[in-house]
Amino acid sequence: QVQLVQSGGGLVQAGGSLRLSCAASGRTFTTYTMGWFRQAPGKEREIVARITWSPSTTYVADSVNGPSTISRDDAKRTVYLQMNNLEPEDTAAYYCAFRTRLNGQYDYWGQGTQVTVSS
């Protein structure tokens, strides 16, 4: 079992920045993926970014409006999503997720955190 605890998010003005964190606990794996998703009201959930271990790769979706980065702190087992130059279209509930492989479905999900960008 893997537990994911998210932090960060909140209300920010357009053009502002936010950093979301996702701390993992429980079982450890050599190869796995952690990702960030978001879901806006009335829309389907979409991938925002993901990062893999063994091999180490990162991906940020084109749908993210401003320059965003995904990074990790292995010692803390934490993944970060730094979002910059946010726009109202980025308003959504953001979720981190974990899968015990490089591809396919995610097995574990965080509790979600709301990001609201005001114009």
Search tags:
single chain, 119 residues, mainly beta, seven-stranded mixed sheet, four-stranded antiparallel sheet, 56% strand
Question: Can you walk me through this structure?
Answer:
The chain is an all-beta fold and 119 residues long. Helix content is 0%, strand content 56%. It has no helices and 11 strands. Strands 2, 4, 5, 6, 9, 10 and 11 form a 7-stranded mixed β-sheet that branches. A hairpin with a 3-residue loop joins β5 and β6 (57-60). It is globular and about 40 Å long.
Summarize the biggest pleated sheet.
7 strands, mixed
Number of strands: 11
Order of helices and strands: EEEEEEEEEEE
* Helix and strand composition category: mainly beta
Poorly predicted segments: none
* Helix fraction bin: under 10%
Helix count equals: 0
Distance between the termini: 40 Å
What kind of assembly state do the chains in view correspond to? Answer: single chain
Provide the gyration radius in Å. 14 Å
Residue fraction in strands: over 45%
Mean pLDDT: 93
